[in-house]
């Protein structure tokens, strides 16, 4: 038979749509035609495949060859289809049995010598192959990553000859057994190491319990970055679904192996980052920092130093938990359910309100500095906290407060209450269900309305105050929101300028 069909997977964002590689041999002058909307790297695969087949000692068909990558309207790029194309040609020419290819999918790039090279985005393809009920053939370097998809039969190979021997029954490949090399969690820094700052630690506990966004404002050297680095250790471990989402994003984003999986990511981009670097983009859309921080922390230090237009693109993903990158041909959707932690100085020199009284900034300079942050962006940050200077350099550190382990246990108990009540953290509560799960007494509701009117707070701010108050009640194990919870939540809105 001169027609062979083998399956592979494309990469569109964090999705892996199925691709059928059809190889047909016909009589006529020797030629090779590749169709199915291939991009440059895919078009070049015919030369890599030809050299790999000949270098491996096989016969390259001297007939009229047509290769079709279906569906035809799906863009294909990269060298991930090389193995499928090579096996399709070998099967169509009778050098590999066609029936052996019907229940497998292939990913991998070929070297001219026939060696198999690693590719990106293996984990999303592995999850999709498992759901389709097929086995997956991957390069040896990608085998550990593919094995994260539990229930999937993975075959790893380092050369085209190994695959040919496997399908011909000469030397069958054994299913790859995971070694657990990617499950290497790093210890989190301890909260007890932060000297003083009891109010900031309390706010950090509230932020972790409800997954609220935080803005820390204070002079240089007061521990803002130190506090932000302690937040990931307070959050509960990723569940299986969340861990797979994080691993799939890491798989798509880089050739590098997964690091510290399944820990929550902590991304810390520099303030010179561009809009596409932060939210993703490019002619072939790639995930940005907000997607790499999915299910984790996005820490933006020196917040006003970011370009204002760059910061404004955060407004939509902060609300929706995803980012859609539109191009002329299609749209790519990336998840972006991250927790924002930002830090800033109170003025250009950084010492406004400092106990040493070193600030020399004029009111106009302070106003211009703070105006770099728009009201709508600040409105989406639940906790606004001033981090003041405490003690002196020579003062001996004290061990007041909770350790990371103790605080994490309190946070876990609060999040269990939220999951059992509404199925999500308080910060992600849908506005339509807000009054159901954050109900207030009539007197407390009128008190909050009056306070918001006097402070000039928006309706979004009022809703976020209610969510923070609900988190405070959950930390205490209280069944309903009370006036002290509202009062404490309201005080966290006092920093925005």
TrEMBL record:
Keywords assigned by UniProt, alphabetized: ATP-binding, Nucleotide-binding
InterPro entries: AAA+_ATPase, CHLI-like, MCM_dom, Mg_chelat-rel, Mg_chelat-rel_C, Mg_chelatse_chII-like_cat_dom, P-loop_NTPase, Ribosomal_Su5_D2-typ_SF
Segments forming domain MCM C-terminal AAA(+) ATPase: 288-387
SMART domains linked to this entry: AAA
One GO MF term: ATP binding
Top-level division of the source organism's lineage: Bacteria
Family classification: Belongs to the Mg-chelatase subunits D/I family. ComM subfamily.
NCBIfam families found in the cross-reference section: PRK09862.1, YifB family Mg chelatase-like AAA ATPase
Protein name listed in UniProt: Magnesium chelatase subunit ChlI
Protein species of origin: Pseudomonas matsuisoli
């Amino acid at each position: 038979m001169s027609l062979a069909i083998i399956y592979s997977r494309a990469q569109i964002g964090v999705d892996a749509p199925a691709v059928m590689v059809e190889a047909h041999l016909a009589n006529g002058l020797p030629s090779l035609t590749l169709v199915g909307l291939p991009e440059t790297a895919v078009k070049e695969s015919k030369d890599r495949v030809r050299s790999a087949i000949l270098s491996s000692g096989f016969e390259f068909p001297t007939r009229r060859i047509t290769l079709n990558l279906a569906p035809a309207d799906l863009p294909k790029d990269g060298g991930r289809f090389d193995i499928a194309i090579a096996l399709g040609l070998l099967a169509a020419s009778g050098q590999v049995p066609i029936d052996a290819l019907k229940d497998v999918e292939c990913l991998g790039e070929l070297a001219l010598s026939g060696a198999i090279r690693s590719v990106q985005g293996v984990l999303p393809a592995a999850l999709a192959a498992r759901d389709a009920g097929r086995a997956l053939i991957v390069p040896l370097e990608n085998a550990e990553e593919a094995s994260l998809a539990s229930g999937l039969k993975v075959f790893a190979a380092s050369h085209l000859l190994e695959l040919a021997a496997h399908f011909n029954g000469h030397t069958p490949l054994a299913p790859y057994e995971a070694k657990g090399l990617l499950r290497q969690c790093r210890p989190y820094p301890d909260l007890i190491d932060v000297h003083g700052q009891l109010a900031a630690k309390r706010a950090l506990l509230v932020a972790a319990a409800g997954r609220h966004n935080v803005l820390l404002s204070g002079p240089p050297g007061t521990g803002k970055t130190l506090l932000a680095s302690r937040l990931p250790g307070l959050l509960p471990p990723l569940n299986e679904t969340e861990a797979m989402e994080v691993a799939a994003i890491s798989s798509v984003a880089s050739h590098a192996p997964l690091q510290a999986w399944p820990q929550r990511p902590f991304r810390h981009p520099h303030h010179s980052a561009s809009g596409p670097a932060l939210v993703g983009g490019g002619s072939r859309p790639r995930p940005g920092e907000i997607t790499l921080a999915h299910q984790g922390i996005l820490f933006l230090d020196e917040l006003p130093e970011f370009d204002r237009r760059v910061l404004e693109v955060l407004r939509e993903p902060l609300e929706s938990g995803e980012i859609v990158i539109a191009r002329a041909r299609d749209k790519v959707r990336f998840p972006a359910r991250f927790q924002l932690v930002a830090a800033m100085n109170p003025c250009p020199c950084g010492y406004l309100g400092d106990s040493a009284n070193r600030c020399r900034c004029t009111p106009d300079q302070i106003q211009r500095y703070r105006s770099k942050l728009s009201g709508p962006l600040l409105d989406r940050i639940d906790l606004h906290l001033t981090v003041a200077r405490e003690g002196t350099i020579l003062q001996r550190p004290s061990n007041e407060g909770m350790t990371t382990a103790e605080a994490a246990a309190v946070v876990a108990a609060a999040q269990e209450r939220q999951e059992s009540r509404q199925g999500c953290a308080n910060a992600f509560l849908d506005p339509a269900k807000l009054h159901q799960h954050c109900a207030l007494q009539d007197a407390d509701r009128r008190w909050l309305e009056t306070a918001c009117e006097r402070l000039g707070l928006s309706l979004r701010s009022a809703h976020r105050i209610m969510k923070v108050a609900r988190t405070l009640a959950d930390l205490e194990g209280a069944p309903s929101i009370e006036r002290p919870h509202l009062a404490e939540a309201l005080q966290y809105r006092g920093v925005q300028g």
